[in-house]
Amino acid sequence: MTSLRRIIVFFDKLEDKIRSVLSHAPIIYALVGAVGIILVWKGVWETAEVIPGLWGPSSVVIGALILLLTGLLVSFFIGDSIIISGFKKEKKLVEKAESEVRSEEEMIKDLEKKVEHLDREVHGLAERR
To answer: How many separate domains does the chain show?
Structure first.
């Protein structure tokens, strides 16, 4: 395993652990996330100030194009889950009881198992031919 791969795996596992801990304290999680986002924006802002031509309208146009071309404009500022829950007229995740969320998770896991089973059956049929 390359050293870059080891670093990526390390930080991936570290992220999972941190998210697991912070998910039990949503207000602290939100504050930590807010600080991180603000610091990233501050860094981007200060970097853009030193690059000629990245001010005012040109910054807006370039930023909007980047967000549109990458598909992040809507998902970042609104969020896919909010759009989907609006279509389905569902409660927001924060309004759902923990039991509702766990019930949905169990339902999703059950569906995943069924899909995996069907996938194995289809592959088995395909191999017999």
So the answer is: 2
